[in-house]
Specification:
It is built from eight helices and eight strands; from the N terminus they run βαβαβαβαββαβαβαα. Helix 6 (178-187) links the parallel strand 7 and strand 8 (191-194). Strands 1-8-7-6-5-4-3-2 form an eight-stranded parallel β-sheet. 34% of the residues lie in helices and 19% in strands. It has helices at residues 15-23, 47-56, 74-79, 95-104, 150-163, 178-187, 196-199, 204-212, and strands at 2-5, 30-35, 61-66, 84-88, 108-113, 131-135, 169-173, 191-194. It is of the alpha/beta class and 214 residues long. Bound molecules: D-xylitol-5-phosphate (DX5) and zinc ion (ZN). Zinc ion binds at residues 6, 31, 33, 64, 173, 193.
Amino acid sequence: MIVAPSLLSADFGRLAEDIAMLNDSQADWLHCDVMDGVFVPNISFGFPVIEAVAKLTQKPLDVHLMIVDPDRYVGRVRDCGAAVMNVHAEACTHLHRTVQSIHQAGMKAAVTLNPASPVEMLTDIIGDLDMVLLMSVNPGFGGQSFIERTLNKIRRLRRLIESEGSKALIEVDGGINLATGASCAEAGADALVAGSYVFGAPDPKAAIAGLANL
Ligand code: DX5
Ligand code: ZN
């Protein structure tokens, strides 16, 4: 299982220490949640913070943009050194164009779906995607409970990926712990984002290892 701890739940007063811990862990990617207070009812952090984090981390950056019109920032995300740029389908008027510009910038393109958005809305673009991120909570906050219906969505997305011959990975974000992560793995997820479960654990590296072994 690919594990992407979410920086949102780190201690922002001790970011360097938390990133050093992640460098020494089995984490595969570092998930960075950017919120604009418009697309979601919360504001997190922006590019100056990601640039600072990029200098410290040894893990590829998985940047999840919970902002309107994320296509305006493809160049900024690339300049931060992101490996993956995650945009919400609900926030892009011309999703195909946005995915093309992410690829032209040299990044992996991932499209994120809110809990109420059906996987079928990606039928005509799934072949162009490197990853689909399924939100298993409503985006905006860490520490929420996993929406069980996501498991059915993972299975439907897996079928869509197979039927369209897509190479897209399935990533799941929100309310992930060892139990919900195991259910996602069984349903066909490739990657798990975990914030509060990792940073709230007495031993974060052991929590990451538990998810990695699913
Ligand atoms: C929520 C963010 C998540 C968040 C997950 O809007 O996209 O990445 O950090 O936090 P947990 O794992 O605590 O649900
Ligand atoms: Zn996220």
